[in-house]
Write a structure and sequence with these properties.
Order of helices and strands: HHEEH
Number of domains: 1
Number of helices: 3
Number of strands: 2
Strand content: 5-15%
Distance between the termini: 12 Å
Length: about 70
């Protein structure tokens, strides 16, 4: 949580006025790919709009999942 707070403070210091966060984990996204009928209400932010994850094209789903794989900030 401390890293997240530092990140937000950096945005404020840099006068960044728009930030979007998806708060969903990789395992849930992978499960939604395998069993979309169980995850119909799973929504995510994609480039400024909200979408149902299970309704996205498979290549866009993979791209969203890849965004969850990162190292420490």
């Amino acid at each position: 949580m401390a890293k997240f707070v530092r990140l937000l403070r950096a945005f404020i210091e840099l006068k960044i006025i728009h930030v979007q966060f998806n708060v969903v984990n990789r395992d849930d996204l992978l499960a939604a790919q395998k069993q979309p009928e169980l995850y119909k209400s799973l929504t995510i932010r994609v480039a400024g709009y909200t979408a149902y994850f299970t309704e996205l094209a498979p290549d866009l789903q993979r791209e969203i999942i890849e965004r969850t794989e990162f190292s420490d900030i």
